[in-house]
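Predict structure. Chain length: 346.
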Amino acid sequence: MGWPVGALPACNVEAKSLAKAQNMKLSRRRLLRLAAVSAPLLSDAVRAEEYPARPVRIVLGLSPGGSVDLVTRIVAQALCDFLGQPFIVENKPGASGDIATEAVVRATPDGYTLLVVLAANAINATLHQKLKFSPVRDLAMVAGMVRVPNVMEVNPAVPAKTVPEFIAYAKANPGKLSYASSGTGSSLYVIGEMFKMMAGIDMVHVPYRGGAPAMLDLLSGRVQVMFDTIPQAIDYIRDGKLRALAVTTPTRAPTLPDVPAMSDFVPGFQAGSWWGLAAPKDTPHEVVHVLAHATNAVLSDPGMKMRLAGLGTTPILYGPAPFASFVEMETDKWARVLKFAGARED
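Prediction complete.
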């Protein structure tokens, strides 16, 4: 369970050993010297060397208490320890994350307001036609944080034991199977539509107001299948209340080693939930790289990797350019899927 909103433990900078503080300072200075070699403005390099000089706000477009909130707070605490200033998580739910995203897009580009950018941002770029901003155009991607595999799970009453058997069963019963999601535009929805598109089957989408009510109806058999995140589904799978047919990542997931990858049966299938950090577009280049360096450093820590693995997540060690390319590719992929689905929200 995550810390209550606004209750992130404070950095205890004074309790750090002098050696650790000196090593951290030297590491950041080496980074800044490298960044300053290509810096067009000396003032940016100076600003970066002083950064952060006060608390940093991380805006999350989801309510507190879920897995995204928990992991964000864990990473925020690690950044606090690494950079010596509080990183405070602010939950700003609503409009599938668009409210939080627009707040950061409009924020002062000084590195003190960050956004947890989600798979939903890549989806909303196409789904929400009246957006006044573009996540790809109006944000500076900082770094990846984690990816979370999704798993295709069915109610045990469904006779299919494998993905090929499920596809055959769906083709023999077109339009009679229903898949649940946490709402139109969620990663559970677009992965379900992607499966329909690539497998050539017809299923009925049943959207819910969140993953919890969707799970209840899947357990009861009112719907037959869902493409849930592993952390949310794993206990039901282990208890035999649901049957896992495949994970949606290219390879098997360590938390479900006996469950095959979807790409074994549907070539090229690759999907999952993910999140990372972004800043307003004009945030100084050197500040972005300080944040990226710090994020990748804390995510590379063996203890952090073990802790995240226990939550069913895997670090994404992307810097600004690779993470920006990744988000752009995800946006293009879901645009194709949403066009196939004919989904559009005003």
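Summary: The mean pLDDT is 86.
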